[in-house]
Amino acid sequence: MVRSTLVNECIAEFIGTWILVFVGTATVATAVTTGAQMGLWQVAVVWGFGLTLAIFASAHVSGAHLNPAVTIALAISTPGSFRRYKTLPYVIAQMLGAITAGTCVFLLYDSALVRYEKLNDITRGGYNSTLTAMAFGEYFPNPQVVKSGALLQEDISPTRAMVIEAAGTMFLMLMIRALTDAENGARPSDQQVPFYIGFTLASIISFVAPFTQAGLNPARDLGPRIVAALAGWGSVALPGPNLGFWVYIFGPIIGSVTGTLLYDFIVLSTYVNKLGTHEAIMASGGGVPRTRDSALRPRNGTGTSIVNGIMEEDVDIARKLSFSAAIDAVDAQDVSKVQIVIRIRPQATKPLAADDADAAATTQDDDCFRVVSDTALIAYPPKTSQAYRSTGTATSFQFTRIFAPQTAQFELFEATTRPVLDAAFAGRNGLVFAYGVTNSGKTYTISGTDEQPGVLPRALHYVMESMQQRKENAQHQIAKVTASYLEIYNDNVFDLLALPTKKRRALRLQDCDGKIQVRALTEKPIRTLHDGEDLLIMGKNNKQVAETNCNTDSSRSHCVFTLSFYKQMTGSSSALFSKVSIVDLAGSERGAKTGATGIRMQEASKINGSLMNLMRCLETLRWNQHHPAQLQKMVPFRESKLTRENLVGRKQGPVVMIVAVNPSSYEFDETLRTLKYSAVARELVPAQARPVTRRTARLYDLDGRLKKRRRASIEAENENIGKSESRKTNSTTVSEPDERDSRIEQLEALVGELRKENGELRRDLAASNAAKLEMEMGIRAEVGSEMQNQLQQMRTYYNEMIERQQERVELATSARKRRHAATTLTSPASNSKRLTPSRADHEALERTVRQLQEQLRESEAEMRRMRLKYEKEMKKHQRRRQVPVDL
């Protein structure tokens, strides 16, 4: 099919505007002349249906603006894929469509209007002819309402009318932007959007029409008004009473511009700033925001629109994961596009973490991701997924290439990695990285197996083979090739080629001349293929791998393998020529499905956090591309080692993103988010390399601090340079070194202020910590005192019980002795057995005494333990207060 042109888009705008204005204006004319309509709400509903039909007729070609106010608002606001040069052709096409629709309405209803004017004694062109002219244009207040006296009894001023029109149009524009924004998780499906927009228009007309007839569209009012002026209404139609026609031109434009700016500055900026986790993106609908003039077109995963089955202009994307905070304005044709390729893994018989019910659902919904062509993919949410419960609509995606499950490793390497290596031999850096959820086949794609090697072993084989061929063909310009292998585990960088030790040492990242480098990272030369394979085996043995419910061999870190190509220089020296990084990103995962606990849960949290920050960087870069300099945002590269580490050098080169897809319905929601994230990368433009000023880099690090070099020598050097330049030019003006000295003094003053502020903050922090510690010790002392009181009460209580028990025993013994004495005197023989108490009573009393004594000992031991703990805490607190705060 042929790509949509500006002429086709203007024709679509003409047709859509004609449908909208003809249906709505004819409805008003019918209500005026025949009384067939039942009321204002029915007229409003027909207007809404007319807009719905117009959108369906033109959205797939032009985006269905149908309103000069909408077109002007999209042109004035920060431009997306809508080009400002289209503004005037769109407005002209909309005006022509409205004028044509007004002419058709006049030809259809002229005789009916004449009869109505005779019956109501209306002179066409007279003051009261607004009752018939309102069939074409709008008037304030609504002539029909004023006539009936049902609502308004006083006139509405032009200013008030314009405010009403602006408010109604602003509300309409806000709803259009919200309904067509893919980041809105509550938005309906693309097939339902026109109905919701039509319903919104009908609602606005229902409460605005009694005041101003609800123009909301300059073309809808001005086009038929011109026809009415030419058909006999004259000045009543144009310019109208109180010159009111301008209200329906400027009011909607002001309201539409205000609505789209509010949406850009409030809604979209809030979305970007609040991206915190993968779950937050899922809750917000995920996906890629669509560009402005494609807001009403069929949705696809790349965020661009589909016109006649063909994608609109593709946007170039970034070449590496750690780039620059601002995007340069570069010609897109001069920057090579990133390749977003999809590799679908074969369907597993049953997910490891799924139960029988999930397995049955997976069998029934195994066709979740349907490959339409080599570049198109449609995701159908299964009934068990969250996407089905929220929207239930399919999502289409467009990528560079899609590889089916039966794709061989060699075919994938030839299509993705080999061109990157060829570019490296030509002096261009490259990047290949695999991205996807856990258990989607990323490690298999990168590393492979002994029988089916992945892209990384094949890359080593291809490099060694190419080196030999270039040497034989006298094309050898690469002196040597070295390799480094690192992993980012729990947001710490570790060297996979370092000798194993009891405790691995985390490597530090440092800023070096505008680049991020890993300190003490091992870089080993590769002379033969066997050397490279040994490095891969060594790295595989050292990297972190564990078993989860979703994957028996799950990578717990991000692994980066970098090949450095060095070019032969004069003599025996060599210089870095290019770099290629092959990255195996750990998969995002959910603890509920992986069953991760303890250290596995901590690893998953770090993995998800680094991937989330990567997506935040991509989103912010994309925001910076589409907004002016004053709205640029800081890209959060430094919040994660993954995004801070500079994977590729400064020179531009190809980048390939291999998105691993698990087709199981059990992992559908996570895989859908992965596809939406991948689509974000297609809209990024890589930053051009900026030359680094050697003198600036020599004076200051990237964090603004002076490097460890004597400033006196630098000032002396600058002074000598200034004198030399002064002699050459014989000028008495201040030399450049003096200006640099002044700038240095300003920066030093700023550094001094920052250090002072830092010291104050540290003192405040120390005071806060001390106050918190004192509060904690006070609470501990209060709790200990209360516990000690309780123990003392318990001790007193048990002592009293023992004393009372002893008193009872003594009283019982004395009573028995008295009874014995009395019985002995009367009958010594019969009462001799009563001289001694019962053995059972004696044992019971002894047991009671022992229990009370045991409880007493336990209480005393608890009191001693708490007293020792309290004394230890107090000593620790006193030692902390004696340690001075290091500022």
UniProtKB/TrEMBL annotation:
<dbReference type="GO" id="GO:0005874">
    <property type="term" value="C:microtubule"/>
</dbReference>
<dbReference type="GO" id="GO:0015267">
    <property type="term" value="F:channel activity"/>
</dbReference>
<dbReference type="InterPro" id="IPR000425">
    <property type="entry name" value="MIP"/>
</dbReference>
<dbReference type="InterPro" id="IPR027640">
    <property type="entry name" value="Kinesin-like_fam"/>
</dbReference>
<feature type="transmembrane region" description="Helical">
    <location>
        <begin position="12"/>
        <end position="32"/>
    </location>
</feature>
<dbReference type="GO" id="GO:0007052">
    <property type="term" value="P:mitotic spindle organization"/>
</dbReference>
<feature type="region of interest" description="Disordered">
    <location>
        <begin position="816"/>
        <end position="846"/>
    </location>
</feature>
<dbReference type="Pfam" id="PF00230">
    <property type="entry name" value="MIP"/>
</dbReference>
<dbReference type="GO" id="GO:0051231">
    <property type="term" value="P:spindle elongation"/>
</dbReference>
<dbReference type="GO" id="GO:0005524">
    <property type="term" value="F:ATP binding"/>
</dbReference>
<feature type="compositionally biased region" description="Polar residues">
    <location>
        <begin position="823"/>
        <end position="835"/>
    </location>
</feature>
<feature type="domain" description="Kinesin motor">
    <location>
        <begin position="337"/>
        <end position="684"/>
    </location>
</feature>
<keyword id="KW-0547">Nucleotide-binding</keyword>
<keyword id="KW-0067">ATP-binding</keyword>
<dbReference type="Pfam" id="PF00225">
    <property type="entry name" value="Kinesin"/>
</dbReference>
<keyword id="KW-0493">Microtubule</keyword>
<feature type="transmembrane region" description="Helical">
    <location>
        <begin position="88"/>
        <end position="109"/>
    </location>
</feature>
<feature type="binding site">
    <location>
        <begin position="436"/>
        <end position="443"/>
    </location>
    <ligand>
        <name>ATP</name>
    </ligand>
</feature>
<dbReference type="GO" id="GO:0005875">
    <property type="term" value="C:microtubule associated complex"/>
</dbReference>
<protein>
    <recommendedName>
        <fullName>Kinesin-like protein</fullName>
    </recommendedName>
</protein>
<dbReference type="GO" id="GO:0016020">
    <property type="term" value="C:membrane"/>
</dbReference>
<dbReference type="InterPro" id="IPR036961">
    <property type="entry name" value="Kinesin_motor_dom_sf"/>
</dbReference>
<keyword id="KW-1133">Transmembrane helix</keyword>
<keyword id="KW-0812">Transmembrane</keyword>
<dbReference type="InterPro" id="IPR022357">
    <property type="entry name" value="MIP_CS"/>
</dbReference>
<keyword id="KW-0813">Transport</keyword>
<feature type="transmembrane region" description="Helical">
    <location>
        <begin position="192"/>
        <end position="210"/>
    </location>
</feature>
<feature type="transmembrane region" description="Helical">
    <location>
        <begin position="222"/>
        <end position="239"/>
    </location>
</feature>
<feature type="transmembrane region" description="Helical">
    <location>
        <begin position="38"/>
        <end position="57"/>
    </location>
</feature>
<dbReference type="InterPro" id="IPR019821">
    <property type="entry name" value="Kinesin_motor_CS"/>
</dbReference>
<keyword id="KW-0472">Membrane</keyword>
<feature type="transmembrane region" description="Helical">
    <location>
        <begin position="245"/>
        <end position="266"/>
    </location>
</feature>
<dbReference type="GO" id="GO:0003777">
    <property type="term" value="F:microtubule motor activity"/>
</dbReference>
<dbReference type="InterPro" id="IPR001752">
    <property type="entry name" value="Kinesin_motor_dom"/>
</dbReference>
<dbReference type="GO" id="GO:0007018">
    <property type="term" value="P:microtubule-based movement"/>
</dbReference>
<dbReference type="GO" id="GO:0008017">
    <property type="term" value="F:microtubule binding"/>
</dbReference>
<comment type="similarity">
    <text>Belongs to the TRAFAC class myosin-kinesin ATPase superfamily. Kinesin family.</text>
</comment>
<feature type="region of interest" description="Disordered">
    <location>
        <begin position="711"/>
        <end position="742"/>
    </location>
</feature>
<keyword id="KW-0505">Motor protein</keyword>
<dbReference type="InterPro" id="IPR023271">
    <property type="entry name" value="Aquaporin-like"/>
</dbReference>
<dbReference type="InterPro" id="IPR027417">
    <property type="entry name" value="P-loop_NTPase"/>
</dbReference>
